[in-house]
Amino acid sequence: MDIRPARLADLLELQRTNLHCLPENYTLRYYLYHSLTWPQLSFVATDSKQRVVGYCLAKMEEEPKDGIQHGHVTSISVLRGYRRLGLAQKLMRQSQMAMRDVFDAEFVSLHVRRTNRAAIGLYRDTLGFEVHGVEKGYYADGEDALAMRLYLQKDK
Ligand code: ACO
Description:
single chain; alpha+beta; seven-stranded mixed β-sheet; about 30% strand; globular; binds acetyl coenzyme *A
């Protein structure tokens, strides 16, 4: 298993992985926008045959309301047969490091369904994110989102 920056050639596979794993799906154009604008921030996990089995799709907030530079994880998922191997944790850490080192991000934000136990476990227990707020009815089916944040340490 390998973790590396996502390339343009990965985007179809990345989109396919997203379609397998999540109801929040995006146009290819949106993946391209991430990859072309912030090529340092999105990562893929690949198997021994170089097939994409997981990804972290991330961006910088272009016009932060409070003026504070920060990154945002748009989407992350790992195919079922490859879960609980530490891949998501590694994908997240790589992206967080690039946000801090390349773009001077102070923190990273994300949204997660409040019932998504696995992802909340990853963010809160493994990576140290905290709940910053609740966004009522954020998802298309009306479920609330937890808005979570992790402040990035400068000296690590
Ligand atoms: N139940 C509880 N905690 C879990 C679970 C689970 N099923 N899966 C992972 N965790 C937590 C644990 O704390 C785990 O540490 P441990 O294994 O030492 O106990 C920690 O997360 C790290 O686990 P990883 O192995 O790195 O996570 P994995 O590679 O399995 O991927 C993910 C986790 C991405 C949430 C995966 O389950 C998945 O793809 N789910 C479907 C898609 C999804 O929900 N994505 C997140 C949506 S929110 C967003 O995209 C911003």
